[in-house]
């Protein structure tokens, strides 16, 4: 596997241009950092991350995960996270390949894998990297330098990659993500509702009805999937959006009200708890170093 990993890393580095680079293959990006980073709050959409060098740590709710060249990261829902690179140097930068996961493409493969029971499990995790996964990724990476072959070959490679993920340790959760009638998909639709109206009061009963669950069952399944309660999820979205507004030179009170807070003091407390500094000081620090929310 070391030979495969080395070739993958060399190909990725040839096409990496800054912290995040799009590639010739739709849905595939390359991430690179030449040093350790500060914890950054962001929203992970459904994604498969394969680290080629270095390591990263991610906090989701009360869960802390580490992924590196031996363990890939997989998320099946939109998740507010805090993540940071923990192993990287200019000589050995952190390098990662990421594939955005499409539920429709997964669904087309469900007839090719054995069905399993529907389980209440986190919609994210880390699992061991295999030679089979690296071989498919290498075929994808070769397309970075052959864009004329992408329309014909990239869909085939992506299909095989998704198939192997469905057959892997996190396949049960991915199958639920792909099935429109699963509890996880109903949580996914509730998340879309929360995201579209994160600045409005949260109506748990309405979200539960839309998901076809009781309020207690909805809360239980939501937290099992995201490691956050619906209210905690909304709070993370609000604070992340407020941070973006603050960096764009908005003031703290105006940012607080814009994202749905009624109390500026409560906003400042919760902001400092998440980001480690009061709003104005945190935004000034990020503007000074030229860093946007990751």
Describe this structure in a few short sentences.
This protein has 294 residues and is α+β, with helices and mostly antiparallel strands. The chain has helices at 2-15, 103-107, 131-142, 150-166, 171-178, 183-196, 204-211, 215-226, 230-247, 252-258, 264-275, 279-289; strands at residues 20-22, 28-33, 40-44, 47-53, 55-60, 63-68, 71-75, 79-87, 94-100, 124-128.
Structure, described:
A hairpin with a 2-residue loop joins strand 5 (55-60) and strand 6 (63-68). The model has no long low-confidence stretch (mean pLDDT 93). 47% of the residues lie in helices and 20% in strands. It has three domains: 2-178, Jelly Rolls; 183-226; 232-289, Arc Repressor Mutant, subunit A. It has helices at 2-15, 103-107, 131-142, 150-166, 171-178, 183-196, 204-211, 215-226, 230-247, 252-258, 264-275, 279-289; strands at residues 20-22, 28-33, 40-44, 47-53, 55-60, 63-68, 71-75, 79-87, 94-100, 124-128. The radius of gyration is 20 Å and the shape is globular. Helix 6 (183-196) packs antiparallel against helix 7 and helix 7 (204-211) packs across helix 8. The longest helix is centred in the last third of the chain and has 18 residues, at 230-247. A six-stranded antiparallel β-sheet has the order 1-2-9-4-7-10. It has twelve helices and ten strands. It is α+β, with helices and mostly antiparallel strands. It comes from Hansschlegelia zhihuaiae. Keywords: Transcription, Transcription regulation. InterPro entries: Homeodomain-like_sf (IPR009057), HTH_AraC (IPR018060), Tscrpt_reg_HTH_AraC_N (IPR009594). This is AraC family transcriptional regulator. Residues 188-285 form the HTH araC/xylS-type domain.
């Amino acid at each position: 596997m070391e030979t495969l990993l080395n070739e993958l890393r060399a190909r990725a580095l040839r096409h990496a241009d800054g912290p995040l680079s799009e590639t010739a293959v739709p849905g595939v990006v390359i991430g690179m950092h030449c040093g350790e980073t500060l914890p950054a709050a962001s929203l992970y959409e459904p994604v498969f991350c394969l680290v080629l060098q270095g390591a990263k740590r991610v906090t989701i709710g009360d869960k802390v995960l580490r992924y590196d060249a031996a363990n890939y990261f997989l998320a099946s829902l939109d998740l507010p996270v805090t993540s940071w690179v923990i192993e990287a140097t200019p000589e050995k930068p952190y390098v990662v390949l990421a594939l955005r996961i499409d539920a429709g493409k997964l669904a087309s493969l469900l007839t090719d894998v054995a069905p399993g029971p529907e389980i209440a499990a986190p919609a994210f995790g880390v699992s061991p990297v295999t030679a089979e996964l690296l071989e498919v990724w290498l075929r994808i990476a070769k397309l970075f330098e052959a864009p004329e072959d992408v329309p014909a070959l990239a869909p085939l490679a992506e299909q095989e990659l998704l198939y192997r993920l469905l057959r892997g340790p996190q396949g049960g959760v991915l199958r639920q993500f792909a099935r429109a009638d699963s509890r996880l998909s109903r949580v996914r639709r509730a998340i879309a509702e929360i995201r579209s109206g994160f600045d409005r009061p949260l109506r748990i009963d309405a979200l539960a009805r839309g998901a076809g669950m009781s309020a207690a069952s909805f809360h239980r399944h939501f937290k099992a999937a995201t490691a956050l309660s619906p209210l905690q999820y909304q709070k993370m979205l609000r604070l992340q959006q407020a941070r973006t507004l603050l960096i764009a030179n908005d003031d703290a009170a105006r940012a607080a009200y814009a994202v749905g807070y009624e109390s500026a003091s409560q906003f400042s407390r919760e902001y400092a708890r998440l980001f480690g500094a009061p709003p104005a000081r945190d935004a000034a620090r990020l503007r000074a170093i030229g860093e946007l929310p990751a």
